[in-house]
Automatic annotation (TrEMBL):
<dbReference type="Pfam" id="PF01722">
    <property type="entry name" value="BolA"/>
</dbReference>
<dbReference type="InterPro" id="IPR050961">
    <property type="entry name" value="BolA/IbaG_stress_morph_reg"/>
</dbReference>
<comment type="similarity">
    <text>Belongs to the BolA/IbaG family.</text>
</comment>
<dbReference type="InterPro" id="IPR036065">
    <property type="entry name" value="BolA-like_sf"/>
</dbReference>
<protein>
    <submittedName>
        <fullName>BolA family transcriptional regulator</fullName>
    </submittedName>
</protein>
<dbReference type="InterPro" id="IPR002634">
    <property type="entry name" value="BolA"/>
</dbReference>
Length: 85
């Protein structure tokens, strides 16, 4: 599955401000930024990402997925201190 396809699915489904998807073979890394994560538990944030991708996961098109979610405020802080993209 193409990283851009995953980005489009997540952006459309969740109205994300930013989404970055990278892959290493069949393992995908998702960094998602959106107000929709504000006030959500980590588990709910993960479920929010999995839900629009469930068809691809069950079909086997998307195998392994690691997820990092941020609100826009958290993302600004994360970019400054930890994650050059």
């Amino acid at each position: 599955m193409d990283c851009k396809q995953i980005e489009e699915i997540l952006t459309q489904a969740l109205g994300l401000e930013e989404v970055h998807v990278t892959s290493d073979g069949s393992h995908y890394q998702v960094v998602a930024v959106g107000e929709c994560f504000d006030g959500m538990s980590r588990i709910k944030q993960q479920q929010a990402i999995y839900a629009p991708l469930m068809e691809q996961i069950t079909s086997g098109a998307l195998h392994a997925l690691s997820i990092k979610t941020f609100t826009p405020t958290q993302w600004k802080r994360e970019k400054i201190f930890n994650m050059p993209l």
